[in-house]
UniProtKB/TrEMBL annotation:
GO MF terms held by the record: triose-phosphate isomerase activity
UniProt-recorded name of the protein: Triosephosphate isomerase
Active site as annotated: H96, E166
Gene name in the database record: tpiA
Record InterPro entries: Aldolase_TIM (IPR013785), TIM_sf (IPR035990), TrioseP_Isoase_bac/euk (IPR022896), Triosephosphate_isomerase (IPR000652)
Domain of life: Bacteria
Subunit structure: Homodimer.
SUPFAM superfamilies: Triosephosphate isomerase (TIM) (SSF51351)
Signal peptide: none
Subcellular location: Cytoplasm
């Protein structure tokens, strides 16, 4: 059985000093030899270096929440993949619904970011999920298949990537979807991927995660290590005890 993946997305919530405190508590809560899970922390850009220093001697990996789709240039306010790589990022979230909706990030930009991440050996965590109105209109499956296919258009070779299903309408509401529905969507994602790649590639190089109001009380209901192989955690990752509880719940299943 492969280890589950637990990714903490801190969003725009902690200052560098606060990030250091939270990261230290998480590191202190894990055994020195590590755990039977891949743990990734994704702080905001200003906090990346301080968190990298905190986790340097641990088994936790560093991830980013975003980067620009060009390698360099006159793009005021943006951050490049090269910068993230130099700091020590090995992962990056791509296409989170908050960026798709609030910042109008489109499928073409997301596709460019996926290709750029892979070129720099950074694991892309591609977020997909339907809005409430799309769900009500019966378009959920179409939206998810389209987002997966668009993100991976022209992506032929890779060692590893992650697809995270986050139903947009539950993010931040403290209310997760029914675990059986999450499993159903994971099956849909896997079939969509198998239309694009061989079964061997899908089974060995791509992992599917669930995200959306995940906490230490419900996480075990979602992750089965067959279809859903980990979680992308938002608000609960800001609370060290809860985040550690999520990790412990998943590692106890291994």
């Amino acid at each position: 059985m492969e280890f589950p993946i637990v990714i903490g997305n801190w969003k725009m919530n902690l200052t560098p000093h606060e990030s250091e405190i939270v990261a230290k508590k998480i590191v202190a809560g894990l055994p020195p030899q590590g755990v039977s899970a891949e743990v990734v922390l994704c702080p905001s850009f200003p906090s990346l270096e301080v968190v990298e220093r905190v986790i340097a001697q641990s088994t936790i990996s560093l991830g980013a929440q975003n980067f620009f789709w060009q390698e360099s240039g006159s793009y005021t306010g943006e951050v490049s993949i090269k910068m993230l790589k130099e700091i020590g990022c090995g992962w990056s979230i791509i296409g989170h619904s908050e960026r798709r909706i609030v910042l109008r990030e489109n499928d073409d930009e997301i596709n460019k970011k996926v290709k750029l991440a892979l070129a720099y050996d950074i694991v892309p965590v591609i977020c997909v999920g339907e809005k409430y109105e799309e769900r009500q209109a019966g378009q959920k499956d179409f939206v998810i298949m389209k987002e997966v296919a668009s993100a991976l258009k022209g992506v032929d070779k890779f060692n590893r990537l992650v697809v995270a299903y986050e139903p947009v309408w539950v993010i931040g509401r403290g209310e997760a979807i029914d675990p059986e529905e999450a499993q159903s969507v994971a099956t849909l994602i896997k079939y969509t991927l198998r239309d694009m790649y061989s079964h061997e590639v899908v089974d060995n190089k791509i992992k599917i995660l669930y995200g959306g109001s995940v906490d230490d009380q419900n996480v075990s209901q979602f992750v089965d290590n067959e279809l859903i192989q980990g979680v992308l955690v938002g608000g609960s990752s800001l609370k060290p005890e809860t985040f550690l509880g999520i990790i412990n719940k998943l590692t106890s299943k291994c």
